[in-house]
Design a protein that fits this description.
This protein is mainly alpha-helical. The chain has one domain. The chain is built from seven helices and two strands, in the order αααααβαβα. It has a two-stranded antiparallel ribbon with strand order 1-2. α2 packs antiparallel against α3, α5 crosses α6 and α5 runs antiparallel to α7. The radius of gyration is 24 Å and the shape is globular. The termini are far apart.
């Protein structure tokens, strides 16, 4: 989980610095593939699903490499759809592992953070898929118009601004489907944090209550044994 979260944070921090050049797009594809594969082995417990995600991830990476050299030989919509499927599986598995019953640990907290970041990336590729079908679905101000449908650098930025409800005003949805996606992402971003905090607090209180009950039962058993020994000696 540590390496998976570190890769997610690294991509999030370094992504705005990556230029939309061929080498920059390939670098992003490499980090994206490593992140998905790391997440698959970290959050998924079934080998079949792990293999499914790995195969899809490698397929999207191959599509990305081919698209850089022969753009007309691949379908960008198919590539984006495959990435969206991989991210959707990772989001569901990460959230499932985070909110499963049990004590609050550092890995659970890291899983909650990773799930939040994955939600932002999932919506970014949903925006990319929409823009590939409707090019003017999201309006970007001057300086942010470099083919958002090819590599979603600006779309990831827009997604996290929407997820955190910051909204600087330098990009906004203009098409009904894009507006629906943006509103849904904003709601999910706010509800996820509230539910995660409430769940972690509830798990911590439950674990403390179970520990207190266990100590009480242990104390009662020790007291009963001592009384039995005293009666036996008498």
């Amino acid at each position: 989980m540590v390496s998976f979260l570190a890769l997610l944070i690294l991509i999030t921090v370094l992504l705005p610095m990556i230029a939309l050049s061929p080498s920059g797009r390939l670098t992003l594809s490499v980090f994206f593939s490593l992140t998905l594969i790391s997440g698959a082995f970290t959050t998924i417990r079934h080998r079949i699903f792990i293999g499914f995600v790995v195969v899809l991830t490698l397929s999207t990476f191959v599509f990305s490499v081919i698209a850089e050299f022969t753009p007309r030989s691949t379908s960008p919509v198919l590539e984006t759809a495959l990435k969206l499927v991989c991210l959707s599986i990772l989001v569901s598995m990460t959230v499932r592992q985070t909110f499963r019953p049990g004590p609050v640990t550092g890995y659970r907290v890291m899983g909650g953070i990773a799930g939040y970041l994955l939600i932002g990336y999932t919506w970014a590729y949903a925006y990319q898929l929409l823009i590939q079908c409707v090019p003017n679905a999201i309006h970007f101000v001057a300086g942010m118009t470099e083919s958002p449908g090819r590599q979603p650098v600006h779309l990831i930025y827009f997604s996290f601004m929407t997820l955190t409800t910051v909204g600087y005003g330098d990009a906004y949805p203009v098409q009904p489907a894009a507006r629906s996606l943006a509103m849904t992402e904003a709601l999910v971003g706010q509800l996820y944090i509230a539910i995660m905090i409430a769940s972690l607090v509830g798990m911590a209180l439950q674990a403390r209550s179970d520990m207190a009950a266990h100590e009480e039962d242990t104390g009662q058993n020790l007291s009963t044994r001592r009384k039995g020994r005293r009666l036996g000696t008498v």
